[in-house]
UniProtKB/TrEMBL annotation, chain A:
Gene3D superfamilies: 2.60.120.1130, 2.60.40.3140, 3.10.620.30
Protein name (record): DUF3857 domain-containing protein
InterPro entries found in the cross-reference section: DUF3857, DUF3858, Papain-like_cys_pep_sf, Transglutaminase-like
Domain DUF3857: 56-211
Limits of the Transglutaminase-like domain: 277-388
Domain DUF3858, chain residue ranges per copy: 541-633
TrEMBL record, chain B:
The organism's place on the tree of life at top rank: Bacteria
Domain Transglutaminase-like residue range list: 322-407
Xref: InterPro entries: Transglutaminase-like
Keywords carried by this UniProt record: Signal
Secretion signal, residue range per the UniProt entry: 1-18
Protein name: DUF3857 domain-containing protein
Pfam families per record: Transglut_core
Length: 638, 672
């Protein structure tokens, strides 16, 4: 009997050790699997703030990977630096039945410098594990602890971790010293199963059964629709500083007093030189133009991030000596030079991203976690501003481009911080105009003299071409107009007018495969140089609203010369469409028997529309595209 | 005229004198230079590029590799600023590492016609621990402007005397003056290898060298007499072999599209240790010929040794093959077994890094683990199977016989005098269908006795695609139809990889969007997992925008949304071969029903085109019969790689193909 008992015990023990029933992938809820490449089974974050200089995080994340794309969601890594200690690091892999496959200890993780692609040096490091699955689905449990004396940065809680990944359960608990205080803000929680159990000294949230979101074209950014809990301590410690968060004004004041003040000193020699540059100039705007030009011509971008240097600019005198710096250093240097010539400017923090316009939260001040870049704001009369991107050696004066346009940013003055907005580029500003003279020949080819003028954010996408080699310019033209067949380019003349932010390309070429022939007919596409090529994707079941982040306009004026020996048989009908999304018009005017004038105007406005209207927008674009592809038909004279 | 010539000569002379390559002797002329006369598009140029690598003796450390670098770079514009940051990768292993010393660097600018220098200080230098095997020393130059000249020198001391980095003689910017020197004592025999298009020859000299050895001997006297220490110095004299290269005005190496790896065309010299012979000791071989290289690789336990292990799979193998007699069936079974047993961990390598036994047990391994296991299993099953060493596409073509020349291994099995190539690291790779990464020229098959033969890796079997398309033209401008595609070889491998990596409805949604506007139904795929048969996809569709109805006429191109729309070869000239990866052919059979009430007004002319020397062909045939139009199109490229001499023919060929495919069929309303 005793024998039997111990045997039974052994078997039982074995099962417990080797199998985790709750990690069985085959039992997953169908709702969590829909649209998902991976399912977060449990993501538990526990944070203890025991004092001003003591922050401990415990993480445990169990994720079931459903297919090979899901491997991107493994995320078996932890970043650290000399202020962050990593402990109890490990991972366990389970097969689809929840049977343990392998256990990884701290030593199995690789340890590497974690220098971002834009940086020359950073003091950050990463420990990571690459896991090769044998079959799908499988489950990985990943756990670690970190401790640090920097208590300012507390990771925001994002219960839904991205597109195509669902969450079965996510918990987030903070125990903090009430004397230090904590502020939090819930965003986009509506419609999700999230429970708040916080009380004094404790933040506690639990989210369950959040379904995966599928990415869709022209939809709002993931961050602006997914639930997130913003969190920041009221009193904290960072790299030797004690920080007190109040509102943005006091936060800005703190930044100015502790990180910026005193960093604009320059040598007498430099001051003299800079004063010499603006001699005889009175207008602050013109002075700023001269200074920006000087900075662009004399510095370059080099990013080095070490300790407090991650948020504090290197002094202007240092930048002046080495003539390079990161965004903070170069912006602060420009501010220092402007100060010398008597122009006030504000160091301004921003979340830079060309793909999405992301705001700093007006009602949630925090020192870290909301900005990743710095630009310069110069207030001039009538509440107007000049904006400078100091890391670029080539952007025009007062031109931010799509990297930082139209979003809430934090401008910092000696008096304090203030949330203000960067300029928006209107659809009519983001214009591209193609003016061309097309001479159609009877061998299917065409001789074209074209002039393409790009402004606003369209300028932003093209101006770099000025500096490219002839070969690169040629490649650009040929890929842009590749549909016109083999091109022989006779002349390319690119002109960058920085003053008026306008980029002009003049191109003379001959294209071989322009019109198509059929028997005695010649078919000439009416708009090949400026046609709308990209048709937004069709969805069987659109789920997200339609968002057009930036508007644009696309115009064309062609003078079309028809070949001898042909008779004009038909031209496409004139078309005018106007709706909430934009406007389109195309007109053909017969100037003479052998000459046509084509005018096209196309504007799309920015805006957000309910998901039901996506199909309408798509058919608008389709109609435009179809009309751009319409043909002029000629018949051969007998 | 005479006067003019004199001036020219004088100017020239002055320029020659102005070139002083001693460190710090940067001239005003260099600073004033606005662009490189030989290549005005260059954003920067090496004015001087010096590297000397020598094997030197150090007491306590023995022979070490010392590399001295001195570079002077002119930065013409902002795009050239990337050269103001230098990154030096330093190799290390568990015990030893490479180190940088004596770094000196200055930036020179011309200010008010005076040369101003700025010294690199400690705050511009960084040491980064990149990985287990590499550290990196990085520095960025101060005070850099358009027109600046930067200059730096440093030394690298390396304990790894068998690894000499190749001397790159050509760079992505032009080099005005290049000096490369390699020196080694007679005890070290390095083999010299060269590649690239530049004419290079080494100046060879023998110079004298010596080493002073200090030895200490202690003699103890008997009894209470004192202990005496004797210091001896002995001198060892030997010859040093010195090779030097001096080049002027080396053009920049520029990339072109459809080149598989630009490094294949870069001019380089490489020294690889072939043997060492120290006084009073025996000759130790490294490598000299391909045969030697193969022997060295074969002798390594991680290669030859791993091939001989059989115990770990023997039972499973016996069970697997019990019912099989046909050799090809057996091979297929073993191949599938390895593929399903061991998943590739993404690492290349000719050696089994985990060990085959471990890989089998843990079910994951690198290329060496997997394909050496496969070879071993095939041998155990009685086949004549051998590993084949391969250099992957990104590793370049192995021109020099070096161990690093091969970075990958596949398996070959001989059946009826034919060698079948196998690579079990890719789920969808089949017999003689290797993943693209391994398709690079020739591999080397290593026989059991250590001898080796070259094996052509490019596939001889053409990848075939057959497309059947039946189309009906609707009254409202829609077209409706059915399509069926069949693919073999590499086309099938590519299809399986894509199709099986995503959900069917996601795939269909992409398919629907691929041709603009299409609604797909009755979608079916066959043999997406069964590699023994061609993969087949079929579906019905409705689409618009592929025909135009203007007045009484209907216009459409006979291939609708299929075919090549643009010439892939846009540039007029090309220096490097075009690499298609594998030979392929596509056949289209298209049937178009003529709608009631319409007749054919015109059809494109049928045509037939050929590339020279049987490199490829194109057949295009359109015929109408009663109420149906039949279109037959065949395209073929017979070679994997096409030499640049055929480039203009190839470009013209594709132009004609694209032209032909875009011609239109016109139907008109019948009169009655």
């Amino acid at each position: 009997m005793r024998f039997y008992f111990s045997l039974l015990f052994c078997v039982f023990f074995f099962v417990v050790k080797a199998q985790k029933k709750e990690y069985q992938a085959i039992l997953l809820d169908a709702k969590l699997v829909a649209n998902a490449d991976a399912v977060v089974r449990l993501n538990a974050t526990t944070i203890e703030i025991a004092g001003l200089e003591s922050l401990k995080q415990t993480h445990k994340r169990v994720v079931t990977i459903l297919n090979s794309k899901g491997n991107d969601h493994l995320d078996l890594k932890v970043y650290y630096d000399d202020k962050i200690k990593v402990k109890n690091l490990g991972a366990i892999a389970y097969d689809k039945f929840g049977k343990q496959l392998k256990k990884f200890k701290s030593g199995d993780f690789k340890d590497m410098a974690a220098v971002s692609s834009f940086s020359l040096y950073e003091d950050s490091r990463v420990k990571y594990l690459s896991y090769i699955p044998n079959s799908y689905p499988y489950t990985i449990e990943f756990y670690y602890e970190t401790t640090t004396s920097n208590t300012t940065w507390i990771p925001f809680w994002r219960p839904l971790q991205g597109y195509n990944i669902s969450t079965e359960k996510s918990t987030y608990d903070i125990v903090y010293d009430s004397a230090l205080g904590l502020s939090k803000k819930e965003k986009n929680f509506t419609g999700y199963n999230i429970l708040d159990q916080s009380k004094n000294g404790v933040v506690s949230y639990i989210a369950e059964n959040l379904e995966a979101i599928e990415p869709e074209e022209l939809s709002p950014d993931f961050r602006s629709i997914a639930p997130v809990l913003l969190i920041a301590p009221l009193r904290s410690h960072y790299e030797g500083f004690e920080i007190e968060a109040g509102d943005w004004e006091t936060m800005g004041k703190w930044i100015y007093d502790n990180l910026l003040s005193g960093s604009t000193d320059l040598s007498e020699e430099t001051k003299k030189k800079v004063l010499g540059l603006v001699e005889g100039i009175n207008s602050p705007l013109e002075k700023a133009r001269v200074i920006y030009n000087y900075v662009q011509n004399n510095t370059r971008y080099v990013s080095v991030q070490v300790g407090i240097g991650g948020i504090r600019p290197i002094p202007a005198s240092e930048v002046d000596r080495v003539k390079y710096g990161d965004c903070k250093g170069l912006t602060n240097y420009t501010r220092a030079l402007l100060e010398v010539v008597g122009v006030t400017s504000y160091y301004t923090e921003v979340y830079a991203s060309a793909n999405n316009q992301i705001d700093m939260d007006k009602s949630f001040p925090s020192l870290l976690g909301q900005a990743n870049h710095v630009i310069l704001n110069i207030p001039i009369q009538n509440n107007k501003s000049v904006w400078l991107e100091c890391t670029s050696q080539s952007l025009p004066f007062n031109f931010l481009g799509d990297f930082t346009d139209n979003r809430n940013v934090l401008a910092i003055s000696p008096e304090g911080g203030k949330i203000i907005r960067t300029p928006k580029y209107d659809p009519l500003e983001n214009s591209q105009v193609v003016k061309a003279n097309l001479k159609i020949l009877d061998d299917r080819s065409v001789v074209v003299n074209a002039k393409v003028i790009s402004e606003g954010l369209r300028y932003n996408k093209r101006y770099y071409l000025e500096k490219e080699t002839l070969l690169e310019k040629e490649k650009f033209i040929k890929s842009q107009w590749g549909h016109m067949g083999d091109m022989d380019i006779d002349r390319m003349d690119f002109h960058n007018d920085k003053e008026s932010v306008s980029f002009t390309q003049e191109i003379d070429f001959r294209a071989g495969n322009f019109s198509s022939v059929s028997g005695s007919l010649l078919l000439i596409p009416v708009n090949t140089l400026n046609k709308t090529i990209h048709l937004p994707q069709r969805y069987r079941n659109r789920k997200m609203p339609l968002e057009i982040e930036r508007g644009f306009s696309d115009n064309a004026e062609y003078d079309i010369h028809l070949p001898k020996g042909y008779k004009l048989e038909s031209t496409p009908d004139n078309l005018f469409i106007e709706n909430k999304f934009g406007k389109y018009s195309a007109d053909i005017e017969k100037v003479s028997e052998s000459r046509l004038k084509y005018t096209r105007q196309f504007v799309v406005y920015e805006g957000v529309y309910p998901k039901e209207e996506y199909a309408d927008y798509r058919s608008f674009i389709k109609e435009v595209s179809k009309n751009d592809n319409a043909k002029i038909i000629l018949t051969k004279n007998n | 005229m005479k006067k003019l010539m004199l001036v020219c000569i004088l100017l020239n002379l002055q320029f020659v004198i102005a070139q002083n390559f001693n460190f710090g002797k940067v001239s005003k002329e260099e600073l004033k230079e606005r662009f490189n006369v030989a290549d005005s598009s260059a954003s920067a140029s090496y004015l001087y590029k010096y590297r000397k690598t020598s094997v030197e003796y150090f007491e306590n450390e023995g022979f070490q590799l010392i590399t001295e670098v001195h570079e002077r770079i002119k930065l013409y514009n902002k795009d050239g600023f990337e050269y103001a940051t230098k990154k030096i990768n330093l190799y290390k292993d568990a015990r030893k590492r490479e180190k940088v010393s004596e770094l000196k660097a200055y930036t020179y600018n011309l200010v008010d016609d005076k040369i101003e220098d700025s010294k690199l200080k400690g705050d511009g230098e960084f040491d980064i621990e990149l990985s287990q095997y590499y550290n990196q020393k990085t520095f960025t130059m101060p005070n850099v402007k358009e027109g600046s000249v930067i200059e730096y020198k440093y030394k690298v001391k390396s304990p790894f005397v068998s690894i000499v980095d190749e001397f790159k003689l050509q760079h992505s910017i032009p080099v005005k003056k290049l000096i490369a020197i390699f020196m080694s004592p007679e005890y070290f025999n390095y083999k010299l290898n060269m590649k690239g298009f530049l004419p290079i020859s080494a100046k060879q000299e023998v110079i004298a060298g010596d080493i002073n050895f200090h030895t200490k001997t202690r003699s103890s006297g008997s009894g209470f007499s004192s202990v005496k220490t004797n210091f001896n110095t002995s001198k060892l004299r030997f010859d040093i072999n010195k090779n030097s290269y001096e080049l002027t005005d080396v053009p920049a190496l520029k990339n072109e599209p459809y080149v598989n790896n630009i490094d294949n065309y870069r001019s380089c010299v490489k020294y690889e240790l072939s043997f060492t012979k120290f006084p009073n000791s025996i000759l130790e071989h490294y490598s000299t010929t391909w045969e030697d290289v193969v022997k060295t690789i074969y002798k390594r336990p991680e290669f030859g040794g791993e091939l001989n292990r059989t115990g770990y799979y023997q039972k499973d193998l016996d069970a697997l093959l019990t019912d099989s007699t046909d050799p090809l069936e057996k091979i297929a079974k073993i191949f599938d077994k390895v593929k399903s047993q061991v998943k590739w961990n993404g690492y290349y390598g000719k050696y089994a890094t985990n060990g085959v036994r471990q890989a089998y047990k843990e079910r994951t391994g690198n290329v060496g683990d997997i394909n050496l296991m496969l070879t071993s299993m095939l041998r155990s099953a009685g086949f004549n199977s051998n590993p084949i060493l391969v250099s992957t596409r990104d590793n370049g073509i192995p021109v020099f016989p070096t161990r690093e020349g091969y970075n990958y291994v596949i398996s070959g099995v001989v059946v009826d005098n034919d060698t079948i190539l196998l690579d079990a690291t890719n789920t969808y790779s089949s017999l003689n269908v290797l993943p693209l990464r391994a398709l690079n020229w020739e591999g080397r098959m290593v026989n059991k006795d250590g001898s080796s033969v070259m094996v052509d890796l490019y596939p001889k079997n053409i990848a075939q695609e057959t497309v059947y398309l039946n189309v009906g033209l609707g009254k409202n401008g829609d077209i409706e139809g059915m399509i069926r595609r069949t693919k073999t070889g590499h086309d099938a491998m590519g299809y399986r990889k894509q199709f099986n990596s995503e959900k069917e409805d996601v795939y269909i949604e992409k398919l629907e969007n691929k041709y603009g506007e299409m609604m797909v139904s009755d979608f079916e795929v066959k043999n997406n997992v069964d590699l023994a048969h061609p993969v087949m996809e079929s579906y019905k569709f409705v689409t618009e925008n592929h025909m135009e109805m203007i007045g009484d006429r209907i216009y459409f191109s006979p291939m609708f949304f299929l075919g090549t729309k643009e010439n892939p070869f846009k540039l007029e000239k090309r220096e490097f071969p075009v690499d298609f990866g594998y030979p392929s052919s596509t056949k289209y059979r298209i049937g178009i029903a003529i709608p009631e009430g319409y007749i054919v007004e015109s059809l494109p002319e049928s045509t037939r085109l050929k590339l020279p020397d049987e490199l490829g062909s194109f057949l295009f045939n359109v015929a109408a019969q009663s109420n149906q139009i039949n279109v037959l199109v065949n395209t073929r490229v017979n070679q994997s790689v096409i030499a640049p001499l055929y480039y203009s023919a190839l470009r013209e060929y594709f132009k004609l193909v694209v032209d032909k495919m875009s011609e239109k069929i016109v139907l008109t309303k019948s009169k009655e």
